[in-house]
Predict the structure.
Amino acid sequence: MLDFDLSEMYSVETRVLKQAVRTNKDRFPEDFMFQLTAVEIENMVSQSVIPSKSKLGGAKPFAFTEQGVSMLSSMLNSKKAIQTIGPPTMRGFGTNSFPLSLQEIHSATLSVAVFSSGL
């Protein structure tokens, strides 16, 4: 999931979410979270996942894996985070997960973003 989607879900500003991640870098290894590249962002715009790069406010978004979403929800420690991504959701992740390489995670980012945007 992308940072701006998660910030909307958790009812926090994207900049607040990103700041929390940056101040806790050790909790987010590459298989939990990564920053999209310029090419990946261009692909998102060309596939109408986002209307334009201006939606990002000039910043490259963070993409979170299921483990990253779990870590983020525990870090934010807000009622909304606990309600949105609580134990039932994390249990669902656990039953449907399988090991992926970092390259597979990167290549799947756009597919997930397209799916979550309803296109």
Helices lie at 3-10, 14-22, 38-46, 66-76, 79-84, 87-96, 102-116.
